[in-house]
Amino acid sequence: MTATTGAGRPSTGTEPVLSMTGINKRFGAVQALTDVSFSVNSGEVVALVGDNGAGKSTLVKVMSGAGPSDSGQILFEGRPVSIPSPSASQNLGIATVFQDLALCDNLDVVGNLFLGSEITLGGVALDEAEMERRSWELLKTLAAKIPSVRIPVASLSGGQRQTVAISRSLLGNPKVVILDEPTAALGVAQTAQVLNLVERLRDRGLAVILISHNMADVQAVADRVVVLRLGRNAGEFDARQVSTTELVAAITGASDNVVAERAAREHRTAGSEGTNA
Fold first, then answer.
1. Scanning 61, 106, 210, 265, which has its CA 20 to 30 A from the CA of 96?
2. Do 217 and 109 fall within a single domain?
C-alpha cells in the first residue's frame, strides 16, 4: 500500500525538504492528529487527502504555523525546526494558499501581489512601474492567463483569482507551497488552468503539497498521495499506479475491512484444515 517514488520518476536520493514524524495535536478532549508522518521532496507534488475530519486542515495548520503541534519532530532541509507562527513558517520558506485566497477584490492584480510587501522609491512613494514589471514577469514564468495586471481582482474568474493567490505566494521565493483545495468550485477549464499551474510549480523545483477532495485532480498532477483517516496515516500511494477505488477504500477505511475479512477467512480455513487432519 506504500510507494517510495512518485509518478514513475526516479528517486533523487536526497532528504525531503520538509519531513514530519510523530505529529500529535489535541483540541481539548479531541485528539485531532495521532503520530502522523509526512514528507515532501523538491520538485514533487504530494497530495494530502482524506474525508472531512481526517486531520488534513490540522496538519496544514501545523505546517503553516497557524496551529503548532503538541509534539513530534519537524525537519526542514534535514535540520530540526520549530514552526510556532505563520511568520516562522514563511521565514523557513513555506508558503500557504488557503482556500479563501485572502484577496482584496477592490485592488488590482499588482496591488494584491505586493500587498504588505510594496516596493517604494526612497521609502516614500510606491514604485508602481517596478511592481507592474515584476508582476508581469512572474505571471509570464507561470504562463498565467491574466488579461491585465491593472484590473480589479473582483473582475477575474475563479481560476484567475487562484492564479493570483498562488503567484503572490511565490514572491518570497519559497521552497514549499501548500495549496488548500485550489480547484474547489471551479469549472472544467478553470480547473485545468490551475492544475497546469501546479505542474509548473513542480517544474520550477518547488515542493508542492496539494490538499483536495477531487481524486481525478489528485491523480492528474500528484506524484504521491498521502491518506489521513481519523487523524492517523492511512496509506501512501504512487499517484500514477493507484486506482480511485483504492484511494476511496483507504479514505473510508474499507481497505482495513478487506484485510480483516481476508485474515478471518484464512484463520477459519486453517482451523478447518486442522480439524480435518
1. 106
2. no
Please state whether beta strands 44-49 and 207-211 pair in parallel, antiparallel, or not at all (unpaired): parallel
Q: Report, in angstroms and rounded to the nearest whole number, the Rg of the chain calculated over CA atoms.
A: 22
Do the Cβ atoms of 223 and 239 come closer than 8 Å?
yes
74-96 pLDDT, tens digit per residue, is 999 999 999 999 999 999 999 99
User: 218 and 212 in contact (C-beta within 8 Å)?
Assistant: yes
Total-model pTM: 0.84
Average pLDDT, the chain: 88
Look up residue 174 and give its three cell numbers. Answer: 519559497
List Cα–Cα distances, 235 to 57, 58, 107, 228, 256, in angstroms.
17, 18, 43, 7, 11
99 located within any domain: no
Q: What is the CATH number of the domain that holds 2?
A: 3.40.50.300
Length of the chain: 277
Query: Crossing angle of helices 244-252/254-276, nearest 10°?
Result: 90
